[in-house]
Design a protein that fits this description.
Largest sheet: 7 strands, mixed
Strand content: 15-25%
CATH superfamily of the largest domain: Nitrogenase molybdenum iron protein domain
CATH class of the largest domain: Alpha Beta
Distance between the termini: 59 Å
InterPro entries: ABC_Transporter_SBP, ABC_transptr_periplasmic_BD
Pfam family, one: Peripla_BP_2
CATH topology of the largest domain: Rossmann fold
Protein name: Periplasmic binding protein
Keywords: Membrane, Transmembrane, Transmembrane helix
Organism: Methanospirillum hungatei JF-1 (strain ATCC 27890 / DSM 864 / NBRC 100397 / JF-1)
Number of domains: 2
Structural class: alpha/beta
């Protein structure tokens, strides 16, 4: 006889399946209730059935993904998925990886793991290589509205290789990490990280949820070049949520699409209180990111970038420039599992008095040392948020 626990109050859910004999049903039922109540994932919907050791979750596309047992061999595409696997405690299970990864201090044994995707093209996969590696599970980032691309990949891999789509860019919760840990049997490791993540989010929301709309600055995320400025629109929901968590408003949340070029005439008509320049390692390899080539001169380059933004006639008369509210955020602080740390940097900039005791650098360092397991010291590498503690 199958029994379901109470339905979740969040649409996406997690499910387990296994079987218990009737003699232990009542005890099992109450243990399940206790487990759900204490779970760090508020969207948990756990199902237990009799004599079946299979594992089922609902992925972030709303698909049911079932494995006969915990996956021991996994492959993935997209850098965010790689970092998610680290946080879930599953890197030792990786047999195939995204082709963009180059940092062996961040990802151990990287050179010994074959790439299964084209660098910087997460959906361009080497299906022959994936088949040769015989993974028990293929993991890919849920990317905006690219369901059609995902389904094409799934049709080529399944049923021989199960595929799961998870959103590792979501800053407000770490459900993707928890879901992954259920599939690979590393729940205890993941729970430690989820608790850390959720405590940071709780501390942010306790303060920003009390702000009135008038107390929330208008934020513009600047990407692109001087002549071709880009930003995140409404489909890039992670950036909208980052702004909300930090107590701000994304002025581009009404624009269609995700990362796109902005109409300059539209931009000149906007009321901009804060400008955040997005600076990737790819565009500024000497100054930003873990692999920065000239980290001890990084602040000089960052100051030059800020001056260029302030001198741009599109922004020069904005309140953001007049009030000296121009900041820089490294790209993985936005579109990566580290987005919750990016939210902490942003909160510090938008509301310095409200978050006088917040130290984004300390949060980032603990993330690296405790959960990624790398020896990186933020004092000796490139920039991620500048100024760090404005």
């Amino acid at each position: 006889m199958k029994r379901l626990l109470p339905k979740p109050f969040i649409k996406d859910s997690l499910e387990y399946k296994s079987k218990k004999s009737n003699g232990f049903f009542i005890i099992t039922y109450f243990l399940m209730i206790i487990a759900i109540a204490s779970s760090p994932v508020s969207s948990a919907d756990i199902e237990k059935t009799a004599g079946d050791s299979s594992i089922t979750i609902i992925d972030d596309w709303g698909r049911e993904v079932t494995l006969d047992k915990h996956a021991e061999r996994i492959a993935f595409s997209h850098t965010a998925a790689g970092e998610g696997i680290l946080l879930a405690g599953g890197w030792d299970k990786v047999v195939g990886r995204d082709g963009s990864l180059t940092d062996s201090r961040f990802y151990s044994n990287l050179d010994t793991i074959p790439a299964v995707s084209t660098p910087n093209q997460a959906f361009s996969l080497d299906f022959e290589k994936i088949t040769e590696l015989h993974p028990d599970l293929f993991i890919i980032q849920k990317h905006y509205d690219s369901r059609e691309q995902f389904d094409e990949i799934a049709n080529k891999l399944e049923p021989d290789t199960p595929i799961v789509g998870l959103d590792f860019l979501e800053p407000e919760n770490a459900d993707s990490i928890k879901k992954l840990s259920i599939l690979i049997g590393t729940e205890q490791v993941a729970d430690d990280y989820v608790n850390f993540h959720d405590e940071i989010i709780k501390n942010l929301k306790e303060k920003t949820d009390t702000l009135s709309p008038d107390e929330k600055p208008n934020v513009f995320l600047k990407g692109g070049t001087t002549d071709k400025i880009s930003t995140f629109g409404r489909d890039a929901s992670f950036w909208n949520r980052m702004c909300s968590l930090a107590g701000g408003k994304n002025i581009a949340d009404g624009l269609p699409g995700d990362n796109q070029e902005v109409d300059l005439e539209w931009l000149t008509q906007q009321d901009i209180d804060t400008i955040v320049g997005s600076c990737s390692y790819r565009n500024y390899p000497e100054s930003f990111g873990y692999l920065a080539t000239e980290p001890f001169h990084a602040s000089e380059k960052a100051d030059e970038i800020i001056i260029d933004i302030k001198n741009n006639e599109i922004f020069s008369h904005s309140d953001a420039v007049l009030d000296d509210n121009v900041f820089l955020l490294e790209g993985t602080m936005i579109s990566n599992p580290k987005a919750f740390i990016g939210s902490a940097y942003l909160a510090k900039w938008l509301h310095p008095d409200l978050f006088s005791d917040l130290d984004p650098e300390q949060i980032h360092q603990e993330y690296l040392s405790r959960f990624i397991g790398t020896d990186y010291d933020l004092k000796n590498i490139g920039l991620f948020g500048y100024p760090a503690n404005s």
